[in-house]
């Protein structure tokens, strides 16, 4: 499975990579903002995306909206400090499949990844 | 400054450190920053806009920052590495994001963080805006959160009230 991590913080990408490695996922590509992610998605063809919200150049929500114009099905998990209900609703309306609020435990992130993949496989 | 804007930072810093670092944080009594206040070696700064406008600064002495970053990232990182600034910036991002989610009746946005490194620097906020310092104590050393936020909903209410009194 190919996973694209989109976060401007290398620290957070490393933490997420370590959780993914524990789940057996090692085919991982990284992007440091929405624009960088848009330039990589076509060539990489991810099966799952983990996307931060607040990033320079292009934020995660703008990226999700742009990505969803061409791809309606690849699962996206928003991993962000934006915890307000209105923000979660905004992200889901834009096409996000699941939501993880930072700070998170490895167990929570792992659980959200597994439930997202299970739902998308069943659909 | 409304205490309802300070309490969320206390809860948020404790939550971030407990969740990401498994490190308990004791927050001492808040105080107003004055000229005699401590200087720092590492500061991560984030801007806030919307109903609450201002800045949040997470400041450390170098030794504390090195230990906390090592715990956060799982590896010892030198302070001149970009990864060190990245980690400190992410901490202020999570603390501020968690705090603003608990601002009752106020919507705020946060900027991407900036990090300042340099021995004994001082971060100065807007002239007319008080800075509340939250001194934090951990097993990895001390640090502080400096909150300087203006509640725009309160200012708007005061302006409307003044306009009403004039009319």
Essential attributes:
A: 123 residues; alpha/beta; Rossmann fold; 5 helices; 50% helix; B: 167 residues; alpha+beta; Chemotaxis protein chec; eight-stranded antiparallel sheet; 8 strands; 37% helix; 32% strand
Report on this structure:
The complex is a heterodimer of chains A (123) and B (167). Helices cover 50% and strands 17% of the residues of chain A. Chain A has one domain (3-122): Rossmann fold (3-Layer(aba) Sandwich). The mean pLDDT of chain A is 95. Chain A has helices at 10-22, 34-44, 60-70, 85-94, 106-122, and strands spanning 3-6, 28-31, 48-51, 76-80, 98-101. Chain B is of the alpha+beta class and 167 residues long. Chain B has a single domain (3-166), classed as 3-Layer(aba) Sandwich (Chemotaxis protein chec). Chain B contains four helices and eight strands; from the N terminus they run H-E-E-E-E-H-H-E-E-E-E-H. The radius of gyration of chain B is 17 Å and the shape is globular. The relative contact order of chain B is 0.26. The model of chain B has no long low-confidence stretch (mean pLDDT 90). Chain A binds chain B through residues 8-12, 14-15, 18, 54-56, 80-84, 86, 101-105, and chain B through 15-16, 19-20, 72-74, 82-83, 86-87, 89-90, 93-94, 96-98, 100-101, 107, 110-112.
């Amino acid at each position: 499975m190919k996973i694209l991590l989109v976060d401007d913080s290398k620290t957070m990408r490393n933490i997420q990579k370590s959780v993914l490695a524990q789940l057996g996922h090692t085919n991982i590509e990284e992007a440091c903002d929405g624009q960088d992610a848009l330039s990589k998605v076509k060539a990489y063809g991810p099966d799952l995306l983990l996307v931060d919200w607040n990033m320079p150049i292009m934020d995660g929500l703008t990226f999700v909206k742009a990505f969803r114009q061409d791809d309606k099905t690849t699962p996206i998990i928003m991993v962000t400090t934006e915890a307000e209900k209105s923000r979660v609703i905004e992200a889901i309306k834009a096409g996000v499949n699941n939501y993880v609020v930072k700070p998170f435990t490895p167990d929570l992130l792992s659980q959200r990844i597994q439930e997202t993949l299970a739902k998308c496989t069943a659909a | 400054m409304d205490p309802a804007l300070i309490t969320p930072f206390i809860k948020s810093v404790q939550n971030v450190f407990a969740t990401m670092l498994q490190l308990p944080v004791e927050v001492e009594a808040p105080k107003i920053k004055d000229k005699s206040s401590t200087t720092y070696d590492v500061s991560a700064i984030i801007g806030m806009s919307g109903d609450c406008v201002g800045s949040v600064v997470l400041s450390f002495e170098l030794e504390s920052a090195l230990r906390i970053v090592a715990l956060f990232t799982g590896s010892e990182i030198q302070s001149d590495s970009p990864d060190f600034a990245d980690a400190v910036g992410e901490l202020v991002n999570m603390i501020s994001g968690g705090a603003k989610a608990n601002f009752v009746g106020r919507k705020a946005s946060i900027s991407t963080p900036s990090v300042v490194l340099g021995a004994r620097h001082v971060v100065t906020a807007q002239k007319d805006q008080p800075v509340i310092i939250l001194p934090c104590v951990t097993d990895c050393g001390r640090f502080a959160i400096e909150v300087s936020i203006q509640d725009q909903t309160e200012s708007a209410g005061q302006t409307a009230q003044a306009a009403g009194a004039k009319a």
